[in-house]
From TrEMBL:
Residues 2-389 form the Aminotransferase class I/classII large domain. GO terms for molecular function: 2-aminoadipate transaminase activity; pyridoxal phosphate binding. It comes from Massariosphaeria phaeospora. Residues 400-421 are annotated as: Disordered. This is Pyridoxal phosphate-dependent transferase. Keywords: Transferase. It holds the Pfam family Aminotran_1_2.
Length: 421
């Protein structure tokens, strides 16, 4: 019950390091010096911004969109309200060419404004100030449900190195994975499907300690016990280069108060040491969420796909997370479907628009999309949820058909319909 060490409970750091080594299988084991215990992914995003950014010198925060909307306020708190920029995704995840083009423009602007050094953050030996921040949820994203391909991960790390960017990823759903096939009975997978961005930064082209690099690296991974144990624990971990992991442990509030979540960190160390948590993930969570996923996708295939609803990345071998992203048939709007679903069917879904980056939806707007969650409801409720959603969509489509029938101009002989539509 004393103040904890700045980087967190040693026993938990050690167990997290070996657990991650077993799961992600990097070529070299993950050392505990790469791990800092946090108060969860949200709290640590704030800490990373406090230590590694300057609201003026750091040119932009690039956010893969659609994005986890509760992160926006965290960027706002650190002074980035007018500097948030959306980066669209395609089938493989983040659009690297778009990001490169826009970062170059941002750099040109900084040069013309002589924005050459941090304005508010002095020299601090444990920290550095990055010129850019890139925020992503690369695996089983909330909300897009997509997984970024390995090629994109590597391209992103190279781009981050070229432009002095820190890629902050919330890797909070990685453990919640299962085979995509709806016939599979075995729904447990004990190895990650892809390296995280932070793993890529460690091995790619000489890694974080390559010649000429400052050793901080260009990636920070926010892990969390929220999705695999319980969000009320308020405990997570941050992985990065040893310099970065130490740097974030030196956030002012941690230096004063000691590691966040010190008490619950000791409980979690115990569950990892005994193997109870690993067992819970593998034998309870993955099968339970995998079953729910199978039920909801069967219902989506039966009820929604015939209505013209689209689902991303249907060619994957492994899926996971909590959410599925649905693209509605045009011209249906997510906000209208959401409202009708609540009013007529007592069904809660999230409209795509709330995941747009504030102030920048020009290249990434989601007014025709929805996010649904399959993790919360019991398995036997999910098909009915989708049937209710299908009723709402069918109802709106019928209304549209009737409305356009009423306004359809009469086509005279010799004229074709396309002259009018
Ligand atoms: C992408 C993402 N990041 C962060 C969080 C919050 O994580 P934590 O409870 O560890 O702060 C969530 C929870 O919904 C999330 O989906």
């Amino acid at each position: 019950m004393l103040y904890g060490p700045d980087p967190g409970d040693d026993r938990l750091r050690k167990h997290v390091a070996s657990w991650l080594t077993g799961f992600y299988q990097p070529s070299d084991p993950i050392k505990e010096a790469r791990i800092t215990i946090t108060g969860g992914a949200s709290q640590n995003l704030a800490c990373l911004l406090q230590v590694f950014t300057d609201p003026v010198y750091t040119r932009n925060v690039w956010i893969v969109a659609p994005a986890y909307m509760l992160a926006f306020r965290i960027f706002d708190d650190s002074g980035f309200q007018t500097k948030l920029r959306a980066v669209p995704e395609d089938h493989g995840g983040i659009d690297i060419d778009f990001l490169k083009r826009e970062i170059r423009k941002s750099e040109d602007k900084a040069i013309s404004e002589e924005n050459n050094e941090p304005k508010f953050k002095g020299t601090r030996p444990w920290a550095k100030v990055y010129r850019h921040v890139i925020y992503a949820v690369p695996t089983f994203s909330n909300p897009s449900f997509k997984t970024m391909t390995l090629n994109r991960r590597e391209a992103l790390v190279r781009l981050a190195r070229d432009y002095d960017a820190l890629v902050i990823t919330d890797d909070v759903y990685d453990f919640l994975q299962w085979p995509a096939s709806l016939e599979t009975k075995t729904l447990s997978l004990d190895k990650a499907i892809l390296p995280r961005i932070v793993d890529v930064d460690r091995y790619l082209d000489g890694g974080t300690d390559r010649q000429g690099a400052d050793g901080f690296g260009n990636a920070a991974s926010n892990g969390s016990f929220s999705k695999i144990c319980g969000p009320g624990l308020r405990t997570g971990w941050c992985e990065g280069s040893e310099k970065l992991a130490f740097g974030v442990s030196q956030t002012g509030s941690t230096r004063s108060g000691g590691a966040p979540s010190q008490l619950t960190a000791t409980f979690l160390a115990e569950t990892l040491e005994s193997g109870e948590l690993q067992n819970h993930v593998l034998n309870t969570l993955q099968p339970a969420f995998g079953k729910r996923y199978q039920k909801i996708v069967q219902a989506i295939n039966k009820e929604l796909i015939p209505l013209g609803v689209g689902v991303p990345q249907t060619d994957r071998d492994v899926v996971g997370g909590y959410f599925i992203w649905l693209t509605l048939p045009r011209p249906l709007k997510g906000a209208v479907v959401t409202q009708r679903a609540k009013e007529d069917e007592n069904l809660v879904v999230a409209p795509g628009e709330i995941f747009e980056v504030p102030g920048d939806n020009e290249h990434a707007s989601f007014s025709h999309d929805l996010r649904i969650c399959f993790a919360w409801e019991e398995e036997d409720m999910l098909a009915e949820g989708i049937e209710r959603l299908a009723r709402v969509i069918r109802g709106l489509q019928n209304e549209q058909d009737k409305a356009s029938e009423a306004t359809r101009p009469q086509v005279a002989e010799g004229e074709s319909v396309k002259d009018f539509w």
